[in-house]
Design a protein that fits this description.
Layout: H1 3-17, E1 38-39, E2 46-47, E3 55-59, H2 60-65, H3 71-75, E4 81-85, E5 94-98, E6 107-111, E7 114-116, E8 127-134, H4 138-141, E9 148-154, E10 163-173, E11 180-192, E12 196-207, E13 211-216, E14 235-241, E15 243-258, E16 261-275, E17 279-281, E18 313-316, E19 323-339, E20 342-360, H5 362-370, E21 381-399, E22 405-418, E23 425-430, H6 434-439, E24 453-477, E25 480-500, E26 510-533, E27 536-547, E28 550-551, H7 566-573, E29 584-585, E30 588-601, E31 606-618, E32 621-625, E33 631-635, E34 638-653, E35 656-671, E36 690-701, E37 706-717, E38 720-722, E39 731-733, E40 736-747, E41 750-757, E42 765-768, E43 781-784, E44 789-797
C-alpha cells in the first residue's frame, strides 16, 4: 500500500473512531471504574485523588497508548502548562511555565528524586508515571518550583518475576525523504528471588529531517552574491536537515536484604545528535525582489509581530552545516528504610551534561558588520558549549504514626558547577578577512592575539544550595486536615570568566572577576482540605515560591560610537545604572492563593477536579536586551496571574473512556520600572491564555483472542507573545491545535498498532530563536513542531 493511500485509510479509520484517551492507569481497577495513579507529590505514596493540589498525571499504559515519546508529546496535553525556547541554541534553550509563571528556573523538572534543568528531554521509556504539579512547591521541592513541577518517575525492578518487552516501529513524516524508525526493549531479571533484581532498558530513535538547506554553488562567481546563475553557478540543496537521532540506556538494581531495607542504584544515559536545527526562516526582507540571501544588509525592515512558519528551506550563501549533540548521564542510589513509625529515605545522585552546538553566522556578520565596510560575505560559524555537573543529596523521614499528626522532615544539599547557565564559545568565532576589511591595514588585529575574532567567551559558575524542610499535618476531626510547611534555604553563587572579540569592542579580553553572592530565607506553605464525603474533597492552599538570584557576565563597555557601545546602550535603558551593576541580580518570589476540589462520582466512573488560583509575583527577574547585542538580568516590576484548571474523566460504559482538560491563565504585568521592557497591562511572555485537551478511548473485542484498543486526542494551545529578540515589540505566536490517534490490535502480549501524530498537519510557531550569535536582520528563525507523521508499530511482551 502506498504511503498516500495508506494515510487516507488510516485517517478515515481515526476520524470514525473520534478523538481519545485516558490520563490515568496503574493496576487494573474494578470493572467499570476509572483507574487511579499512586503519586508521591507530597513525598508519600497516595492516590492522586487524595492530593490537595491541582495535578495532572500520565500512567504507563496511557503513555504507551498515546504514543508519548518526549516532553512535547505530553506537555501539549496539560492544562496551563506552556513551553518555549528562550535561551541560546537548541539543546538548552527551552523553558517551562505553569500558571503564567514564565522565565528561566521557574519550573522544576525531576527524574525520580533528582532536580534537573527544565531544558532536559528524557526519553519516555519504562516510566511508572509522570506527575505535573501546579502551583509553588517550595516547601518540599525548594528553589525553581515557583510555578510548579514536572516529575518523571521510572519503574523499579520487580523482585518476583522475569519479564521482557520489545518494541519497534517505522513512520513517515511529511516533507522528509527518509523514514523514521525506533526500537527499544525492557527486561526485568530477578537475580536472587525476593532479594535482588535487575531492570534494563535501551532505545534508539531516528527522526528524519523535514528541512532543506540551499546554498550558492559558487558564491564568488554569483551575480551580486544572490546565486543568480552565471554559467555553471547556481544553487545546491541539501536534504534531511534537522534529522535527530537519540539513544539511551537505563539500568536499575534493587537489593532488598530485609523487609525493612531496600537499596536501589540506578544509571541513566542519553545522547541526542542533530543534523541542523528544526527552525523555519521567516524572511521579512524582500526589498530586492529576490528573497534571501540579499546583496546588502537590510535597512528599515520591519519584522511583523505575527509570524506563521511556512518556508522549510534554509537559504544560505555558503555550505556551513549546523547542528550539535546533547549528552547527559544520571547516576543515583536510593535507600528506603521502613520503621514502625515511618520511612527514612536517602537519595544521592550525580548528574553530568555536555551540549555542543554550531550555528552558521555568516549572514549576521555580513549584515551587521562587514557590509558597511565594503566587505563581502565570508563563511563563518560560531560554536557554543555548555558543560556542567550536579551533585544532589536529600535525606527525609516520612511518618506513619498513629493519631491525628503526620509529618515529613528532611535536609537537602546540591552543588552545581561548570559552564551553566552561561556557555563557553570556543573555538573563537572568526570571519576570514575581518580585520583587513575593518582596518584596511594588513597584519593589524582588532583583538590582539586573536586574528579575525568575532566572539569568544568562557564562564564558570558554582552554585551551592543547602536547605532543611518539613511539613506537618493535623486532623482535628476526621473530615478536616490542616497542613503547614516551611523550608529554610541558602543559595551561594560564585562566577568568573571572560569575553573577547569584535562583539565586545575589540582590544583585550573583557574580564568578569571572581564574584560571589549569598542569599537565604524561609519558604512557607499553608493548606486545609475537607472531605465532604469519602470521594469529594475541597481544599484551600496558600504557598510561597521563590527563585534564587545570581551572577551574570559583566556587560562589556564596547567601543564608543559604534554598534558595540554598550555603555551608551545601557544609559539609554537606565541613566542611573552603570556597567558594574549589571553583574548581579536578586531573587524574586510570589504567593499563590488556590481553591480547589477533587471529586469522584458514580462508583468512580466519573472524576471532576477543578481549581482556581491567584498569584502575586514581585521583583521579577527580567532579561534586559541592549542594542549593543548583550544583555543582563534586572529585578524589574511585578505581575499578577489568575485563572483555573478543570479536568474531567469518565467511563460511561466499560469499553469507553473519555477525558477533558481545560486551563485558563490571565498573566499580566501590574508594575513596571525604568528597566522593564514590558509596560503595565502587557501579557507575560510565552504564556497562552487558553489551553485544552480532549480524548476518547474505545476497546472492542474482535475475532478470537484479538481486541482493538483505539484512541485519539486533541490539544489546543492558545496564542502567546515572545520577547526573545524584540522585548519592546513582542512577537505573536498564534494558537495551534494537534490531533493524534492510535489504533492497536492486541492478542495477549502481542500488539500491532497504526499511529498518527499531528494528523491535521499543523505547523506551529513554537518560538523565535534568540540564536547563538544574534538574529540576522530581516530573517528571524522560528522553532516548529514535527509535521504530520503516520506509521506502524509492533510490541511483544514475554
Amino acid at each position: 500500500m502506498g504511503i498516500t493511500k495508506g494515510y487516507r485509510v488510516w485517517t478515515g479509520i481515526a476520524v470514525i473512531l473520534g478523538p481519545c484517551c485516558a490520563l490515568a492507569d496503574t493496576a487494573p481497577a474494578p470493572a467499570g471504574q476509572l483507574e487511579e495513579i499512586t503519586v508521591t507529590a507530597q513525598k508519600r505514596a497516595e492516590s492522586e485523588q487524595n492530593v490537595p493540589m491541582s495535578i495532572t498525571t500520565f500512567g504507563a499504559v496511557a503513555l504507551e497508548q498515546k504514543n508519548i515519546n518526549n516532553f512535547f508529546d505530553y506537555a501539549t496535553k496539560v492544562p496551563n502548562l506552556a513551553f518555549a525556547p528562550t535561551g541560546d541554541g537548541v539543546g538548552t534553550a527551552r523553558t517551562v511555565s505553569i500558571r503564567g509563571v514564565s522565565g528561566n528556573n521557574v519550573t522544576s523538572f525531576y527524574i525520580d528524586d533528582t532536580p534537573l534543568p527544565d531544558s532536559i528531554d528524557p526519553r519516555v521509556l519504562d516510566l511508572d508515571h509522570i506527575e505535573i504539579l501546579r502551583g509553588p512547591q517550595g516547601s518540599l521541592y525548594g528553589a525553581r518550583s515557583m510555578g510548579g513541577l514536572v516529575r518523571t518517575v521510572t519503574k523499579e525492578p520487580d523482585l518476583n518475576g522475569f519479564s521482557m518487552t520489545v518494541h519497534a516501529g517505522t513512520s513517515y513524516t511529511d516533507r522528509t525523504d527518509t523514514p523514521n524508525y525506533v526500537v527499544d526493549a525492557v527486561a526485568n531479571m530477578p537475580l536472587i528471588q525476593d532479594v535482588v533484581a535487575l531492570r534494563v532498558s535501551a532505545f534508539y530513535d531516528y527522526e528524519a529531517g523535514y528541512f532543506k538547506r540551499s546554498y550558492c554553488t559558487n558564491p564568488t562567481a554569483a551575480m551580486d552574491l544572490t546565486c543568480t546563475p552565471l554559467a555553471s553557478t547556481g544553487i545546491t540543496t541539501v536534504n534531511n536537515v534537522g534529522a535527530l537521532d537519540t539513544s539511551g540506556f537505563i539500568a536499575a538494581l534493587t537489593v532488598k536484604p530485609s523487609d525493612s531495607l531496600t537499596i536501589t542504584p540506578k544509571l541513566i544515559l542519553q545522547r541526542a545528535g542533530y543534523n541542523g536545527f528544526p527552525m523555519a526562516d521567516y524572511v521579512t526582507d524582500t526589498a530586492n525582489g529576490i528573497g534571501y540571501p540579499v546583496p546588502t544588509p537590510p535597512t528599515g525592515v520591519a519584522t511583523p509581530s505575527r509570524m506563521v512558519p511556512s518556508d522549510f528551506t534554509q537559504a544560505r550563501w555558503f555550505n556551513v552545516p549546523e547542528g550539535g549533540w546533547d549528552n547527559w548521564g544520571l547516576s543515583s542510589i536510593t535507600v528506603h528504610w521502613k520503621t514502625a513509625v515511618g520511612e527514612l529515605v536517602s537519595s544521592s545522585s550525580y548528574f553530568s551534561r555536555k551540549v555542543v552546538e554550531t550555528e552558521d553566522e555568516t549572514d549576521f556578520v555580513y549584515a551587521a558588520i562587514t557590509a558597511g565596510a565594503g566587505g563581502a560575505p565570508q563563511p563563518s560559524a560560531i560554536t557554543e558549549e555548555k558543560d556542567y555537573q550536579e551533585f544532589v543529596q536529600e535525606v527525609r523521614f516520612v511518618s506513619a504514626v498513629q493519631g491525628p499528626v503526620q509529618f515529613v522532615a528532611g535536609a537537602f544539599y546540591s552543588d552545581t558547577h561548570g559552564r551553566l547557565p552561561f556557555a563557553a564559545y570556543y573555538p573563537t568565532a572568526t570571519a576570514p578577512g575581518l580585520d583587513l576589511t575593518l582596518t584596511g591595514t594588513p597584519g593589524v588585529e582588532l583583538t590582539p592575539g586573536y586574528p579575525n575574532a568575532i566572539f569568544a567567551q568562557d564562564f564558570h559558575t558554582d552554585i551551592k544550595e543547602p536547605a532543611v524542610f518539613g511539613e506537618v499535618s493535623y486532623t482535628p476531626i476526621e473530615p478536616l486536615k490542616l497542613t503547614g510547611g516551611l523550608r529554610w534555604y541558602q543559595v551561594k553563587n560564585f562566577s568568573e570568566g571572560y569575553e573577547l572579540g569584535l562583539a565586545t569592542g575589540g582590544g583585550p579580553a573583557v574580564v568578569s572577576p571572581p564574584q560571589s553572592t549569598t542569599e537565604s530565607g524561609v519558604n512557607p506553605k499553608f493548606e486545609a482540605d475537607y472531605h465532604l464525603t469519602q470521594d469529594q474533597m475541597v481544599y484551600a492552599n496558600l504557598a510561597k515560591g521563590y527563585r534564587p538570584g545570581g551572577i551574570v557576565p559583566i556587560v562589556p563597555s564596547g567601543e564608543a560610537g559604534t554598534a558595540t557601545d554598550c555603555t551608551a546602550a545601557l544609559k539609554a535603558v537606565d541613566p542611573n545604572i552603570n556597567i558594574a551593576q549589571t553583574r548581579t541580580f536578586q531573587s524574586d518570589s510570589l504567593w499563590n492563593y488556590e481553591l480547589g476540589t477533587k471529586t469522584a462520582w458514580l462508583d468512580h466512573r466519573l472524576t471532576v477536579d477543578a481549581a482556581a488560583f491567584y498569584i502575586k509575583w514581585k521583583n521579577i527577574q527580567q532579561e534586559i536586551l541592549l542594542s549593543c547585542g548583550f544583555q543582563y538580568i534586572a529585578n524589574a516590576g511585578a505581575a499578577v496571574s489568575k485563572g483555573g484548571e478543570l479536568e474531567v474523566r469518565a467511563r460511561p460504559i466499560e469499553p469507553l473512556e473519555i477525558s477533558l482538560g481545560l486551563g485558563y491563565q490571565d498573566a499580566k504585568i501590574t508594575q513596571a520600572s525604568i528597566e522593564s521592557p514590558q509596560p503595565v497591562g502587557s501579557p507575560i511572555y510565552q504564556v497562552p491564555d487558553w489551553t485544552g485537551n480532549g480524548s476518547v478511548q474505545y476497546t472492542a473485542p474482535l475475532i478470537g483472542d484479538w481486541k482493538m484498543v483505539s484512541n485519539a486526542d486533541y490539544s489546543y494551545i492558545g496564542r502567546t507573545y515572545s520577547g526573545n529578540n524584540q522585548p519592546s515589540d513582542p512577537r505573536l505566536r498564534p494558537a495551534y491545535r494537534l490531533i493524534n490517534a492510535h489504533i492497536g490490535f492486541d492478542r495477549g502480549p502481542f500488539e500491532i498498532a497504526l499511529v498518527g501524530k499531528n494528523l491535521s498537519n499543523e505547523i506551529a510557531n513554537l518560538g523565535d530563536s534568540r540564536s547563538i550569535a544574534a538574529e540576522t536582520p530581516g530573517r528571524p528563525r522560528l522553532f516548529v513542531n514535527q509535521p504530520r507523521t503516520v506509521g506502524i508499530e509492533f510490541r511483544q511482551s514475554f
